[in-house]
Design goal:
It is built from 17 helices and no strands. The two termini are 16 Å apart.
């Protein structure tokens, strides 16, 4: 009997989660009891929490060892520098294209025009960065152990890059011993990742069931045009822009590649975390798409932190949506072309600092709102539909990371025939 592949199991899990969530919600409505008080919701929450913790548990060591191992595979600082420069250019280019797509559609659809709402209280209870420089300085850890403990992934990435770069300067037995240790640790983390991935269909079903049982479908009604604008912009970037780039730079079938990466995309959709999805992305890139370990283990961990096409696009659409609402309440307010260009620049810059965890984009959005003089309180409007849109933009983030890994690997001649 033919073995069912992972992406089909994940699709089954998503379907089962939707069915269980809708059924739970309907039963609770009929019994007139809150969903959160039921044993079913407690089970969804418990399984989903365990799955998310397992994903997050492997992220820090997986990022560190895979990134350093990938850098050692480069062999020299010169080759590392060339690959890093090429990767960074791709990251910035795709993010800028995503931002311009969002900017165009939000100005065409204008979802905030005619939207009348009382300004609510912002449900943000964490300390927020106040300036762009606060974001940049927070990228450099003063204590890498604390950065790892607090899941400040970009700090860990920076340390891993420096560690790997200076490892390349070692010679003789020291370099050999340390390289073997790093490679062995990377192999162990990939095996551990495989174990966690095997649990993905069950964990994803619980995540979806938990979400649907509480929100149902009514969450989209009030914010429907905003949701349509974000979803359409994300869809254009996912199904038009990225495939065009893949074909342009590799002459490969982009949609076949995207389907090959679908287990990672489904996992990203359900977890809303490109960092948490990294293990699945690495597995599919190497064993599904045939991207070499040297390229995948360098490009993908880096991309999970600094390449946030979906997040950058979402921030632009959200800020301009809020600006359109505010202009309807305060007729004296308007965004000049210069301010819109500032939003584009800030969207590109702060997306680099947005950690690959759920809702990070909302925190980064505050910086842009403050820069153009918009009330931060309006971010509360976004929370109503943010989780679902967060899931969608994570799919775009993961697809972009994978696409760039393919393009870089193709340029380096390191793409083999993929295998499932």
């Amino acid at each position: 009997m033919r073995r069912i592949k992972l992406h089909w199991w994940i699709l089954i899990g998503i379907g089962a989660g939707i069915f269980a969530g809708v059924l739970t919600q309907h039963l609770c409505i009929a019994a007139d009891i809150p969903v959160e008080s039921t044993a079913a919701y407690a089970a969804y929450d418990g399984i989903a929490t365990i799955f998310m913790k397992l994903l997050k548990m492997i992220v820090i060591p997986l990022v560190f060892f895979s990134l350093v191992s990938g850098m050692q595979g480069m062999g020299s600082l010169a080759r590392l520098g060339r690959l890093g420069f090429k990767t960074f250019l791709f990251y910035m280019g795709t993010s800028l294209l995503a931002i311009l797509t969002g900017l165009t559609l939000v100005n065409l659809i204008r979802p905030g025009v005619g939207f009348q709402v009382e300004v609510p209280t912002t449900p943000v209870d964490k300390e927020l960065p106040e300036t762009f420089w606060d974001v940049l300085t927070s990228m450099v850890p003063d204590n890498v152990i604390r950065a790892a403990a607090e899941f400040e992934l970009i700090g860990v990435i920076l340390f891993a890059i420096l560690f790997g770069a200076f490892m390349l300067t070692l010679e003789g037995e020291k370099k050999t011993v340390l390289s073997r240790f790093i490679e062995a640790c990377s192999d162990v983390m990939m095996k551990m990742t495989g174990f966690v991935i095997a649990l993905a269909p069950v964990g994803i079903a619980a995540l979806i069931a938990k979400l649907v049982s509480v929100t149902g479908t009514k969450v989209f009604i009030e914010m429907r045009w905003y949701v349509v604008t974000v979803a359409l912009a994300l869809g254009v970037h996912l199904l038009v822009t990225l495939p065009a780039l893949i074909y342009l730079f590799t002459r490969r079938n982009p949609y076949r590649f995207i389907w090959t990466m679908s287990p990672a995309l489904f996992t990203g959709f359900s977890t809303a975390s490109s960092s948490g999805t990294l293990g699945v992305t690495l597995k599919r890139a190497e064993h599904g798409a045939g991207i070499s370990n040297r390229v995948a283990s360098f490009v993908l961990p880096l991309g999970a932190t600094i390449n946030m096409d979906g997040t950058a696009l979402y921030e632009i659409v959200s800020v301009l949506f809020i600006a359109q609402i505010h202009a309807g309440i305060d007729p004296t307010f308007s965004l000049t072309l210069g301010q819109q260009l500032l939003i584009v620049f800030l969207g590109l810059a702060v997306s680099i600092g947005a950690a690959g965890i759920p809702h990070a984009g909302l925190v980064m959005m505050v910086i842009i709102l403050q820069a153009v003089g918009l009330p931060v309180e309006y971010t509360a409007l976004i929370w109503a539909v943010d989780r679902v849109l967060d899931m969608c933009r994570t799919v775009v983030n993961v697809t972009s990371d994978s696409s760039i890994a393919l393009m870089v690997a193709h340029g380096e001649g390191e793409v083999a025939e993929g295998s499932d």
